[in-house]
Amino acid sequence: MAARELEDVLKEVRRIHIVARRQVNDLLAGEYLSAFKGRGMEFDAVREYVPGDEIRSIDWNVTARSEVPYVKTFCEERELTVFIAVDISASGAFGSQSLSKMETAVEVAAVLMFASLRNNDKVGLMFFADDVIKYVPPRKGRGNVMRLIREMLAAEPIKAETNITKALEYLGRVQRRRCVVFVMSDFLGPDCSKALSVANQRHDCIAVTLQDPRELEIPDVGFITLRDAETDELLELDTRHPKVRALFAQAARDRESNLTSGLKRANVDRLEIRTDQSYATSLQRFFRLREHQR
After folding, report:
1. Alpha carbon 123 to its chain's center
2. Ranges of each domain in the chain
């Protein structure tokens, strides 16, 4: 990386650091804890059996040594392992607002990372497109979070189709411990509901869907040429015709319907992020919904 590029990345790291910490401090700290803390149980101690205790909780090894029945006790996990899986396929570079989908994803991921840091959680990162591009194992600490933000800012879009299934299969092989997995993508690829369902049985998976308003409808701007960022396929449209705009909008609604039904089949929660709306508001709404569901 050239010195100038490195300087620009570090400047952006500082900006995102300020933005993300402000969001966590002002808005999201309590919601994050309520939504995710204690999602699992961990062994705490053993104590003598008392009438009414669940027989299945008896620790037979301790019981055999002491000749007195003992039971295991458990408590909620105090710390989490949070994993951010980011789609860096070229479609993420699209944006009609001040930030592209990828730039928005970086800011949202940074907020989640700083919320995790505040809770002393481990945080890991993975980049994927048609395959896994990079994997960073979960670690604790501010230094780790700052490194992950630098990694995200330095990531270049990959001209390849999105394959979330491959990414989740890889995660299943390398991440044995239960974790909270945020899959950040525009989900413009093959159906991945089966892979999400399988991953969600071991982990707590959240689909972070990134959308730009120009992917949902197009205005009347005359002749335009659209290019698929991942395949280079070109499509020419005459947006003056209401039927053309209607067909475009219908295709977007069909994609949305398929995505919604797929996530429902997989029993995976959705965090919807739009580039033309406040992601802080979306995060708050999502965390409060999770707390209510618990």
Report:
1. 12
2. 3-36+78-293, 41-76
pLDDT interval class at 150 (50, 70, 90):
very high
- Written as one letter, the residue type at 166 is K
Give CA torsion, residues 135, 290, 262, 177, to 10 deg: 30
Q: How far apart are the C-alpha atoms of 208 and 185, rounded to whole Å?
A: 6
For 102-135, what is each residue's pLDDT tens digit? 999 999 999 999 988 888 899 999 999 999 999 9
- CATH class for the region spanning 3-36+78-293: alpha beta
**Cα within 13 Å of Cα(55), Cβ side:** 0
d(CA 164, CA 189): 8
Supply 266's token pair.
């997989």
pLDDT of residue 294: 62
Distance CA(101)–CA(85), nearest Å, equals 14
**Separation of alpha carbons 133 and 144, rounded Å:** 19
Angle at 111 between CA 138 and CA 139, to 5 degrees: 15
pTM across the whole model: 0.81
3-state secondary structure the chain: CCHHHHHHHHHHHHHHHHHHHHHHHHHHHHHHHHHHCCCCEEEEEEEECCCCCCHHHECHHHHHHHCCCEEEEEEECCCCEEEEEEECEHHHHCCCCCCCHHHHHHHHHHHHHHHHHHCCCEEEEEEECCCEEEEEEEECCHHHHHHHHHHHHHCCCECCCCCHHHHHHHHHHHCCCCCEEEEEECCCCCCCHHHHHHHHHHCEEEEEEEECHHHCCCCCCCEEEEECCCCCCEEEEECCCHHHHHHHHHHHHHHHHHHHHHHHHHCCEEEEEECCCCHHHHHHHHHHHHHHHC
* Closest of 198, 189, 191, 183 to residue 266, by C-alpha: 198
Find where tokens 């479609």 sit.
Answer: 91
